[in-house]
Amino acid sequence: MNLLIELAVTGALSGVKVGISALGFAIIFYATKEMHFAYGAISVAAAYLCYWVVLSVVGPVGVILALFAAFGFAVLMSVAIHKFVYLRLRSVMPVVMASLGISLLVENIVQMIGSPDTQVLVYDNLLQVVDFGFARVRVLELWIAALFLAISFGLDFFLNRTRIGQGFAATIEDPEMAELVGIRTARMRIGAYCAGAALGTLSGLSMLIDTGLRPSQGFVLLLYALIITIMGRGSFRAVAIWAVLFGLLRSVWSWQFPTEFQELAMFAVMMGYLIGRDAWDRYKRNRLTPLPASVSASSVVTGGV
Amino acid sequence: MNQPPILQVRNISRNFGGLVALSNVTFDIPRGVVTGLIGPNGAGKSTLLNIMSGFERPVRGQILLEGQDITDVPGYARVKLGITRSFQDVEIFPTLTVLENVLLGFQNQYGEKLWRLILTPGAVLRQRREFIASALGILKSVGIIDDRPDELAGNLSYGQQKLLALARMLPTNAKIFMLDEPGSGLPRPIVAHMGELLERVAHDYDKSVILCDHNMDLVLKYSKHVLVLHHGEFLAGGTPDEIRNHHDVLRVYLAKPAESGKVVRMPSKGNANA
Amino acid sequence: MRFLLTTAMLIEIYAIVSMALNLLLGVAGRYSAYEAAMMGVGAYTASLLALNAGFDLYTACFIAALAAACLAIVFQVMVRHMDFFTFNVSSFALQMVLYETLLKWRDLTEGSVGLFGIPRPEIFGVSFNTLNSYMVLTTVSAAVVIGFLLYLERSQYALALRGMRDGEKAIESLGKNTFLLKISVFAIAGAATGFAGGLLAGLTRSVHPSMFYIYLSIVFTIFVVGGGRGNLLGTIIAVVLLTGVEQAITLIPGLPVSQIGALQRVIYGAILLGVVMWRPGGLFPERPIFKRTQYKEIHPVDQGLAFLGQKKVEV
């Protein structure tokens, strides 16, 4: 039983790490409907930038500079890609292709500048382990979990309680209508890219300190974020919950089943869920609703030849 | 007009959640003439057309083609049975040429069947050439668009595209051609050209045409029989003249109020003389 | 010389898969992200049959093609009603599921160790064991498959696919069964890809999951988009050119080995982005399938509407 709890905690924490990245991608995708495949690569590149600056400029100044550089780079790159590439291309397939191309470019330029090996930034105080009795957790992971909760609830609050947030929610739900009532949807989209890029960078930075960074991690990160976003179907709550759920499932899987099949099981479950959900939707739609009782029989009028 | 109707619509009802789109609609489509289907916006014309052509399913009711119940037959399968339709938004194939658009209308093409492509390429080629010849002939008969068969359909003007959509339906050799707003947004000469073509198709080749349009001139001028829909219910049916003077239709659709004191007496709706 | 022969065969095999993908992506307008994994399914099926079940590799290639086609059909039936984004994501998910299966189902596939010592075919007593002889077999097989795909591209079947791409409702209103069209085109593409996978297994004589990772799917997409969506001949040229570029990169003096892959992918990314932005049709844009000018000798039928039947004679 203890093992199960420990697995659950580890799993939830790993889900949280994916969750930050997934929320960032979801913000971008729901607001713009653009499949920003370059998201993962830019997040990782931003983290690399941070790493290089920290190595070059010592001390707290270096850290602040590094953070500026990382976030600045991610936000500027993302907004620039949105404005100069995606908006010019308009239709869905070319955007997918272009973002795949950018993803390849960024990821491999980073690899050429740096090295394909894993890079880690070590901060001892963050790596200290806290023993909760039922599980042992690192301080860093607690911070990440706290961040995730703050972001999730903050997003919820933003969308429901603030004016700008409601405008954003309207942009997601019905952009044409939103435009008609005076919401500046174009600005909302740029804001979405800023927020999404920031979350992506956070996710990259947490990887940097936690498990280490490799250039090729961007794409798998993106894939998870993408699938969870599609599963979420417009709801950020769903995205957050799915992310944690998948972390849990993945970890708890190894309680009873061979660990090496974790990834396989996860992707299979995701695919199965998407297929099942689609079938269920169709079934509901095809089971035509019966006519309301108020339709009178007297309206039968025959027209003949 | 003593022939049996080619299409019978019986008690068709369709709703979207609480919104009733069609309610107990019943009428017959006569054979060999152009039948117009009119009604104000929201009357349910497009939904009715979708149900008749198999692109939507009714909640209740039946569609009978020459006596055979085809209510459950999906849209693409109805073409073989003899029903084809056009769409309100143009829906020609923009990246294909004019000739290729028309070519897709032919049925039972050997060149679409994989086993024929592999085993009988000669027959495939022969039939293909026949179809191309027929397609070119159809284009010539339709007119206006016949001089540029290799032009990409997306480069044609709106009116030419609507004509192409019409031309594309002809090779199906259907018994019933259903047209959804074919004249919308078109200049008068092209509308007239279309109307004459439809009349020719119906009259000379004993085909039935269902013309669903807002354009009263088009419908009343070229139809022999007119059906009126209002708020999802069948309102009236008759010759264009009868409909033009029909009390209920005037009240509801043409918005010409009956002059006070003068009530226009109509022949009862059941006796439409085709 | 070995190098040239191996590269040539690799080009032929990649050309088959890329043309199949172009049939899906360019002609039918349906994206497929799992072609690399499908190739892996073909390669592993053929290898396992040849190694463990005593099949000749060439026969195994055909069985592999069948297996891949069946897998494609099953998957496409399950996803047939999905909207574009969900369909796309499911496609990626399938690639990952298949890849993980190849990597982790060690009892069947030997996992990350891979399969070795795959025997080259022997047909009617003729052994194709040497590189030269295998080159002949591969080239002839590839020519047949590629020839068939090119023939298919110029048929009414491909025209119907293009029509479906342009307007699904419209093509249905002309009587075409879009479900059948989708299933059949994915089956054909799957079969060709599976077969190519089998040929690859014979070429390299060993298979390993890393050969069929998602990157390869993206590379195939680049071949299609760069060469020309909807133009299968263009795909062949793109494969030749880009493989040449790829090999040329390996010859750059002073480039550390770890950077070769990165530089190749940078070039690929740049090409993909560049083509999409500035020459969206690709190097060789799509051409019409049937042009009047190609059938100059055909006369239009005199009574144009005669197709509709006999004109009614007025009494």
Which stretches of chain C are poorly predicted, pLDDT < 50 over at least 5 residues? Answer: none
Through-space gap between termini of chain A: 79 Å
- What is the level 1 CATH name of chain C? Mainly Alpha
Computed CA radius of gyration of chain A, to the nearest angstrom: 23 Å
**From the structure provided, what is the oligomeric state, counting identical versus distinct chains?**
heterotrimer
Largest sheet of chain A: 2 strands, antiparallel
DSSP summary: helix tally of chain A: 12
Order of helices and strands of chain A: HHHHHEEHHHHHHHE
**Largest interface, per-chain counts?**
B-C, 60 and 47 residues
Gyration radius of chain C (Cα, Å) is 22 Å
Question: Which class of secondary structure composition applies to the elements of chain C?
Answer: mainly alpha
Instruction: Report helical residue fraction of chain A.
Output: over 70%
Give the name of the CATH architecture of the largest domain in chain A: Orthogonal Bundle
CATH topology of the largest domain in chain A: ABC transporter involved in vitamin B12 uptake, BtuC
Largest sheet of chain C: 2 strands, antiparallel
State the helical fraction of chain C.
Answer: 55-70%
CATH class of the largest domain in chain A: Mainly Alpha
Descriptive overview:
Chain A contains twelve helices and three strands. Chain A is mainly α and 305 residues long. Chain A has two domains: 2-256, ABC transporter involved in vitamin B12 uptake, BtuC, CATH 1.10.3470; 259-287. Chain A has a two-stranded antiparallel sheet. In chain A, a hairpin with a 4-residue loop joins β1 (129-131) and β2 (136-138). The longest helix of chain A is centred in the N-terminal third of the chain and has 31 residues, at 2-32. The radius of gyration of chain A is 23 Å and the shape is globular. Chain B has 274 residues and is an alpha/beta fold. Chain B has two domains: 1-90 and 156-269, Rossmann fold, CATH 3.40.50; 93-153, no CATH class. Helices cover 36% and strands 22% of the residues of chain B. Chain B contains ten helices and ten strands. Chain B has helices at 45-53, 75-81, 98-103, 114-119, 121-142, 158-169, 188-205, 216-222, 240-244, 247-254; strands spanning 7-16, 19-29, 34-38, 60-65, 68-69, 83-85, 176-180, 208-212, 225-230, 233-238. In chain B, the strands form two sheets. A six-stranded mixed beta sheet of chain B has the order 6-7-8-3-9-10, with helices on both faces. Chain B has a four-stranded antiparallel beta sheet with strand order 2-1-4-5, covered by helices on one side. In chain B, α7 (188-205) links the parallel β7 (176-180) and β8 (208-212). In chain B, α7 (188-205) runs parallel beside α8. Chain B is globular. Chain C has helices at residues 2-27, 35-52, 57-79, 84-104, 106-109, 131-153, 156-166, 168-172, 178-204, 214-227, 232-250, 257-278; strands at 122-123, 126-127. Chain C is globular. Chain C has twelve helices and two strands, in the order αααααββααααααα. In chain C, 68% of the residues lie in helices and 1% in strands. Chain C has 315 residues and is an all-alpha fold. Chain C has one domain (2-308): ABC transporter involved in vitamin B12 uptake, BtuC, CATH 1.10.3470. Chain C has a two-stranded antiparallel sheet with strand order 1-2. The interface between B and C is large, with 60 and 47 residues.
